[in-house]
Here is the input.
Amino acid sequence: MSDAVSRAVTNLLHDQRLRIPLAVLKGFRNGLVYGVKIRLPHAIVMTFLFHNGSLQEKLSVILSLTYQHARNLALLATIYKTTTMLAKKGMGHSSPLVTFLGAAVAGYIMFGSNNKLNMQVNLYLLSRIILALVKLAVKRNILPSMNVFPWFAALMWGASLVLFEYEQGSLHPSLSASMTYIFHDSEHWTNLWDLFVYNTLLQ
Here is the structure.
């Protein structure tokens, strides 16, 4: 690349009139890259551990999950950055309400479909948000100062086991199956083999 072209490109990249579209473009790029980085290894491990089918079918599942996660994050970033940056430009400042509305619109569009991947991502966010809100309440003296995490763990496990024992049908099937294996199947055995070595009860 010649010096003249390099300088022209540099000038364009620093042109304030292009700041919003370039920020949106980079948000799209970063969402895409992060989606691939976070989903691809997870999809490979989970698919080869728990999915039946041919190698081609497994690779198809891996690529489909990775594409969906990367696309959703890329377009979420695009919608969020576009709406909030345009609002900030029009108002002269941003605000928590603008941030919330921009993110809510993006989340509704990109993660509003009820499927396994979106469920996983949304529940991941929910757990982090609950913990963050408790920490914020402590920081702002709404709750007394304390180590929040053990209480968070206590609440999560207490609630999950009560639901499992008394309202099992309300839990996600995979969580219910895991808890059945750990907490209910541990009460049954016929010999040393299925007591210590191999649980035959789910076979």
